[in-house]
Amino acid sequence: MRVLTTTLDLTSEKAQHNRAAMLERLAELHEQQGLARDGGGAAAVDRHRRRGKLLARERIELLLDPDAPFLELSTVAAWGTEYPVGASVVTGIGVVSGIECILIAHDPTVRGGASNPYTWKKVLRATQIARENRLPVVNLVESAGGDLRHQAELFVPAGRLFHDLSALSAAGVPTIALVFGNSTAGGAYVPGMCDYTVMVAGGAKVFLGGPPLVKMATGEEADDESLGGGEMHARTSGLADYLAADEHECIAIGREILQHLNWRKPGGPTSPPDEPVYDPEDLLAVISADIRVPFDPREVLGRVVDGSRFEEYKPLYGPALVTGWAAVHGFPIGVVANHHGILFNREAKKGTEFIQLCNQSNTPLLFLQNTTGFMVGTQYEQDGIIKDGAKMINAVTNSTVPHLTINMAASYGAGNYGMSGRSYDPRMLFSWPGSKTAVMGPEQLAGVMSIVARQSAAAAGRAFDEAEDARRRDELAARIESESLALYMSGRGHDDGIIDPRDTRTVLGIALSACYSAEVRGSRAFGVFRM
Amino acid sequence: MIEKVLVANRGEIARRVFRTCHDMGIATVAVYSEPDSDAPFVREADEAVPLGGATPAESYLRADRVLEAAIRSGADAVHPGYGFLSEDATFAAAVVDAGLTWIGPPPEVVRRMGSKLEARSLMAAAGVPVLPGQDLTGLDDDEVLAAAETVGWPVLVKASAGGGGRGMRVVRAPEDLLQAAASARREAASAFGDDTVFLERYVEAPRHVEIQVFGDTHGQLVALHERECSLQRRHQKVLEEAPSPVVDPDLRQRMSAAAVTAATTLGYVGAGTVEFVLAPTGEFFFLEVNTRLQVEHPVTELVTGLDLVRLQLLVADGHPLPPEALSAPLVGHAIEVRLYAEDPARGFIPTGGRVRRFSVPQQAGVRVDSGIMDGDIVSPNYDPMLAKVIAYGANRDEAILRLRRALRHAAVDGIVTNLPLLLAVLDEPDFRAGDLDTHWFDRHPPTDLLQASRDEDERAMCALAAALAAQAQARTSASVLPGLPSGWRNNPAQLLRRDYADDDGTVEVGYQLGRAARFQIDGVDRDVTVHSATPDGVVLVADGLRRRFSVIADDGEVTVAGSRGSVTLRELPRFPTHTAELAHGSLVAPMPGTVVRTLVTAGDAVTAGTCLVVLEAMKMEHQVVVPVDGVVVELSVQAGQTVSAGDLLVVVQEPAEEAAVSAR
Question: What is the ipTM of this complex?
């Protein structure tokens, strides 16, 4: 395979501007991640520690294999909502006893670990990743259950967790609950649905109804311990398979359970990984600060893929879409990357073909999004851009090799779909900090709305208020802009997290390895391609 | 003509003799016990004969088997080394009677000098100054006490047949004398099969200075200058040097003359050492003659340029001493340290275990005589000396610096040794000034020396290096995601942690590699840049100084060696284990060994300070003493039983506890 060349000039004003802009956005991201890490704040953290308990992230750190990487998912979930950033739960992919697992740890410092609608979004997304990639799930449970003030938004989706845990078990994917504290009402089913349950003596409280509810329901006077203490569940109900003396032992037992699972991955890397020739640090200078300025995805690939090697497919045909083969951390991938933003007829057809080829060879696909959508205009409509776009969407939809999607900059219109956006079930989708996602650009959208309003006024014979239109246009454009930002999209749970572009190779390595926990098999059956 | 030599010994001295034999074209034969079957000296000998057995009494002290081995292997000479049978006149005579050459003084000389009492009277008669003393053989308790009054306090109780400090006890008060004498007799009987014990006046602040002598069968007898061997612990030498920092040419001449007189009186042939006590006044008294090659002979070799083993072989073969021996120069200064498998911080108790790695850098002026190699097990059956490191310099300072550098870069991993103490001694101002005596370690307690030489920051850096090497090992052996950045986090909440401990406490290392690299030791941020980290080596720049550490980890223990010496730490487990704890009041074996006697049974009331169990390890008796008053509730061992360090011996319950138990 050929080693990519680079034309990046680090000393150029553009490069330095790009870098400065990206560092600014990263600082924003880190600030929000810091808020998530702070959980319920210093007072709540102190109170939790005074009870001799570990924080959610401390539990995760102890559970993980020493020095193994940990990819936290959806770090800024619930950003921009009424709920705390991070959604009071930590999820991620980590290695425990040599096995890649999905970890789900409630943060008991945020309202006792009570879940809100975004908690569920984040947790259910994690179990979906576990199901699609066959990753064992370890729940680190300490949650007061649903935040009852929001029961209307919670009750229905919450049931899905029990469904997913049961389905995982049926699919032979191990599920483990390590119960450190409260696991009440609905939460009580988590240990009930898991294959293995460990409870901390004196800490775990697992019951459908606590003393107040039991008193209300039947008049019985009961205490926490006899209703749902670890000792009771280990000796009497049998819900706890193991009783741990303390949190450390609980985590150690969890690690031992994974050791005896006899878990084997069906696949692994096929080539020795070597670092890229070009420093990933320089990605900060590659990525345009201005979303309207395109950049060459080959400059990105040269800083992500093994040895900066890339075998380009059809380089001369449909050049606005770059396709070809590479490897990341020894895992082979097919790359589909936007170059000049627009998907023309040839680009759509080239992408369709390439997706089919990757399915033929059981090769996972990496989509690098920077698209403003499929081309519009008389010529393109007459050339059948709808048919060609449909081909690509058909191929993306029915492709069965794992898709990993990075939204590098722009993800607008049906381009988002053709480039395996969230609705097309990529195994994982990550965003770079400056990226935007929307049906179209804010100016275009506001302009379209303005034209429609003007036509409507003309049809009705009304006078058109230009000043009011300008104000409305600006207001709308600003709102659309703010709702297309990476933090907004990630906060709403439309991706699996915003990542530092310099970490792209690492994130892809973890994600690909996770994908290979399930069999990677391409589809031979696609829908009807409209020719 | 000697063509094939059997060495009736083991370890470093066997290797030392083989080396010269091979240089001279002489074939060699080793004898070995079962634990030594893979030892370096056995592998290096041209041929080897198994003796069977493990303890010295079952193997290297079996004169009959050693002699049979010599005959079977066709050896024409026997070199006894030091210790074991080297001063056993009966064995020497048996060798001669079997028609073989005994590489040592005539058996009769060995016999006469083997009895310290006879040696003393002989020397006194010849005009060699001796200390007042008296034989205790046949004396009852009152007579023993009277003898002590005659000799004058304080007294030294010595086993007549002993050597190297074994069976010796200093007694300063009459009430301690009888027990000391009994114990010395017992130890002498167990070690030498001869329980003769005598008393001697004890000189305070004495130096131990000895003269190397050499005689041949042609009537020539020379003194090869002195060795200063004052640095001793438990009456065993730790560091020896030549020349002595306080012996001037005049004193040297007088001591040499006395040594030659002593040797001439004996009709001495071969290598011998006349030991003297040198008082601060400059007076010296005859101590004893060692009729063998000494452990510390290399310092003499380095300052004279002679090969003493070669001279032994020449003399044994009937050759006259060569001219270079007859007018041996004294050039430069040599210092030898003995590397022992012992713990200076805990009363020098023998340690033992498996030596994972042993290396001393090759360096100009540094000689290493060792008996061990990587992977060897240091058996509790034998002397705990692992190796001798000897440095030579144009003067004492150069010798010290060369020795210090060699020891700093030496690696002895897997077992606790006196290496840190040796390094501490070399930096001690009194030592630097040459201010020595045999009680030096009483004035400079090892714990103080170790404390003074401690470098907190170096220990911290070593812990950091250990953690970095451990993370490299973890990443190298990872079964999934092996190529990914170590400890990578996209939302780092805390530093990764590895905790270590040694006898001085714990060290907590926090680290994060990668873009936002950060390092903490005990919660304090450190200015460190990691240049490289592999499982066995770490290079980092700390506070502007680039440092290289080699790391070896095994079974939770890690040894980190840098340019300033090495540190051994235990890696603390991430998850504390919930194993059953020892019952309160449990006394455990402080070292591996054999139970010699149990002095109590269950139910006995004991007072603080009472000895409950006597252990023997590495030929030393160790008393296990109860620290509190109480009642023995459990005795877990019996005489003859072998125990490992940490094994439960006795459980003693304090009266209050006992009351609480019965009240329940």
Answer: 0.94
